Amino acid sequence: MILNAFSLHGNVAVVTGCNTGLGQGMAIGLAEAGCDIVGINQVEPDETQARVTALGRRFLSLKADLRKIDAIPALLDSAVAHFGRIDILVNNAGLIRREDAINFSEQDWDDVMDLNIKSLFFMSQAVARHFIAQGSGGKIINIASMLSFQGGIRVPSYTASKSGVMGITRLLANEWAKYRINVNAIAPGYMATDNTQQLRADAQRNADILNRIPAGRWGQPDDVMGPVVFLASPASDYINGYTLAVDGGWLAR
Fold it and tell me: What burial class does residue 201 get, using C-beta atoms within 10 Å of its C-beta: 0-12 exposed, 13-18 middle, 19+ buried?
């Protein structure tokens, strides 16, 4: 039965930045599909952990600043020691800084790039090594953005990093498909999360954005649950290097 291909029963998913927002939504969606969850965050994801365990799934919380990539191997070793394996990685942790490009600082550039693209690559590399050692393949899902496709304004390092996410997703898919590792990405549209609070608080910007979205609303964390489960499941085994926009039709306009 085709619905069996969407089941993730018995799988272990590592989700970075899952204490709130889209990361929380994806962690819960994966748990609903059958996954145990390893959450890597800078703060304890108490609400996410409670909601995952209420589903009867196990949750391991690991605390780290992923801009410090030296910590990555030990984090994954802890996950494997606790659950025995890793099957799925969701590179969700991200950062945005808003400022006119003419005034943008080196620190704001480095902070965003270090988390959004550098740590994503080295986390993917470390997880892929576990997948190859396990010999059973695996799924890597990167979180891109509308700004992987567009330039945006006042977010130069975010645009650069998310454009890089789309590119590195393709490269890793090319290199690792032979190991049965699928690397794909999700590009959320305008979502009602902490990252967009400033935009939603600006009445004119909020109206301008909503007027362009064919669905007529901001996205919610629940909107990424189905896409992440699909890309994590056997149902997507022949999808490699693709970035799936979840945008209410924004890019179609």
Answer: exposed
